[in-house]
């Protein structure tokens, strides 16, 4: 089935982005150092009506929604996208509120903030809001954009817990169901900065069909038709492909013991590189062999 919407998943940074900097208003251009100038501008350019698109900021994952929402509105305002507002859903019953559902139906873009991805899925999963979101993504010229928790929750399988330092000990990585916008991947965020490579290794060795996606900060993927991925932003995207794993001790060891893996394939993407989820082919934009 052809997917008509676009998915933009972003590795995140700190919850409040750069818009808590005290000299922002006085020196705004130099302070757009999170993803406001690059990735957020790309979100606007990819949207149906560009700067005129209706954008809703979804703050459900955040513990500070009344602070984080206006910061995104302000960021988008600096990029001339003024048709923007915040939907703050803190309880499941709000996800069936007719006014909120109508706002979702009218949106060209939804931007899910960072925070706690388990909070996001436990509040929105299986609600009318979730159903409309999936329908719009599949059938309309619509963008789901998510940073940090908003990115991690986009796939069918979602990492919600796991220490970076102990991630390759059996059982340390906890996985549950996400929002289900994309199949056959699992996403981790703040990837390079927080040393989360082991979390993705364990997630993939347990189900090698699933492609692991590790998003660095100020970095994301633009995914079109649910299958074609382009790296955007200034950092790195790490892909972990388990299809060619030759051996592991995963089923032979006790919980808490170290995991061994033989022949786990990784790819590293930077800006403009692409990867096709159907063919598993990576194309380096500035290849030294072209």
How would you summarize what this structure contains?
The chain has 290 residues and is an alpha/beta fold. The chain has helices at 28-31, 39-46, 65-78, 98-106, 117-124, 128-139, 149-152, 197-205; strands spanning 6-10, 55-58, 84-87, 109-112, 143-147, 155-161, 174-177, 182-188, 211-215, 219-224, 228-233, 237-241, 247-248, 261-262, 265-269, 274-276, 281-283.
Structure characteristics:
alpha/beta, 290 residues, globular, 6-stranded mixed beta sheet, 8 helices
Describe the structure.
There is one protein chain. This protein is of the alpha/beta class. It is built from 8 helices and 17 strands. The chain has helices spanning 28-31, 39-46, 65-78, 98-106, 117-124, 128-139, 149-152, 197-205; strands at residues 6-10, 55-58, 84-87, 109-112, 143-147, 155-161, 174-177, 182-188, 211-215, 219-224, 228-233, 237-241, 247-248, 261-262, 265-269, 274-276, 281-283. It has a 9-stranded mixed beta sheet with strand order 3-2-4-5-1-10-11-16-17, with helices on both faces. The longest helix is centred in the first third of the chain and has 14 residues, at 65-78. The chain starts with 5 loop residues before the first strand and ends in a 7-residue tail after the last strand.
Mean pLDDT: 89
Strands side by side in the biggest sheet: 3-2-4-5-1-10-11-16-17
Q: Provide the gyration radius in Å.
A: 19 Å
Number of helices: 8
Number of strands: 17
For the termini, the CA-CA separation is 34 Å
Low-confidence stretches: 14-35
- The arrangement of helices and strands along the chain is EHHEHEHEHHEHEEEHEEEEEEEEE
Q: Indicate the structural class.
A: alpha/beta
> Looking at the structure, what is the overall shape?
globular
**Proportion of strand residues:** 25-35%
Query: How many strands, what sense, and barrel or not for the largest sheet?
Result: 9 strands, mixed
Bin the helical content.
Answer: 10-25%
């Amino acid at each position: 089935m052809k997917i008509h919407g676009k998915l933009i998943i972003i590795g995140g940074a700190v919850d409040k982005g750069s818009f808590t900097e005290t000299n922002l208003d006085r020196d705004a251009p130099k302070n757009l150092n999170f993803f406001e100038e690059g990735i957020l501008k790309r979100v606007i350019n990819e949207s149906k009506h560009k700067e005129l698109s209706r954008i809703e900021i979804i703050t459900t994952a955040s513990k500070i929604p009344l602070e984080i929402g206006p910061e995104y509105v302000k960021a988008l305002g600096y990029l001339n996208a003024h048709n923007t507002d915040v939907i703050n859903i803190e309880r499941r019953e709000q996800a069936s509120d007719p006014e909120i559902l109508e706002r979702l139906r009218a949106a060209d873009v939804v931007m899910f903030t960072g925070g706690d991805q388990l909070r996001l899925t436990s509040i929105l999963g299986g609600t009318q809001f979730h159903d409309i979101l999936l329908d719009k993504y599949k059938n309309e010229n619509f963008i789901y954009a998510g940073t940090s928790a908003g990115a991690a929750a986009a796939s069918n399988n979602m990492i919600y817990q796991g220490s970076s330092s102990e991630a390759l000990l059996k059982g340390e990585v906890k996985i549950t169901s996400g929002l289900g916008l994309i199949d056959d991947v699992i996403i981790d965020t703040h990837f390079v900065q927080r040393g989360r490579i082991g979390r993705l290794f364990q997630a993939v060795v347990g189900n090698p069909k699933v492609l692991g996606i590790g998003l660095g900060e100020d970095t994301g993927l633009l995914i079109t038709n649910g299958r074609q991925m382009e790296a955007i932003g200034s950092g790195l995207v790490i892909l972990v492909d388990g299809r060619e794993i030759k051996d592991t001790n995963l089923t032979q060891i006790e919980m808490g013991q170290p995991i061994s893996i033989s022949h786990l394939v990784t790819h590293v993407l930077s800006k403009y590189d692409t990867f096709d989820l159907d063919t598993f082919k990576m194309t380096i934009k500035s290849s030294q062999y072209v």
